């Protein structure tokens, strides 16, 4: 399991819910989560924003680049 998937699951969100939050289709989100396409900077920031409600110390870098 990758970090993006783990953080999404820690928020008790399924792929469909996260896709809707990021304004993506389920297929597009699934491809991004599996590493088949890249997240845009704005999507990374929005993803981090929702995860930071549970862990305020989380950063874009720690999710997507470490």
Automatic annotation (TrEMBL):
<dbReference type="InterPro" id="IPR001387">
    <property type="entry name" value="Cro/C1-type_HTH"/>
</dbReference>
<dbReference type="GO" id="GO:0003677">
    <property type="term" value="F:DNA binding"/>
</dbReference>
<feature type="domain" description="HTH cro/C1-type">
    <location>
        <begin position="6"/>
        <end position="48"/>
    </location>
</feature>
<dbReference type="InterPro" id="IPR010982">
    <property type="entry name" value="Lambda_DNA-bd_dom_sf"/>
</dbReference>
<protein>
    <submittedName>
        <fullName>Helix-turn-helix transcriptional regulator</fullName>
    </submittedName>
</protein>
<dbReference type="Pfam" id="PF01381">
    <property type="entry name" value="HTH_3"/>
</dbReference>
């Amino acid at each position: 399991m990758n970090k993006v998937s783990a953080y999404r699951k820690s928020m008790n969100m399924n792929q469909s819910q996260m896709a809707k939050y990021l304004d993506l289709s389920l297929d597009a989100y699934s491809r991004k989560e599996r590493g088949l396409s890249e997240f845009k900077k704005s999507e990374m920031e929005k993803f981090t924003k929702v995860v930071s409600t549970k862990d305020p110390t989380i950063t874009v870098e720690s999710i997507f680049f470490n």
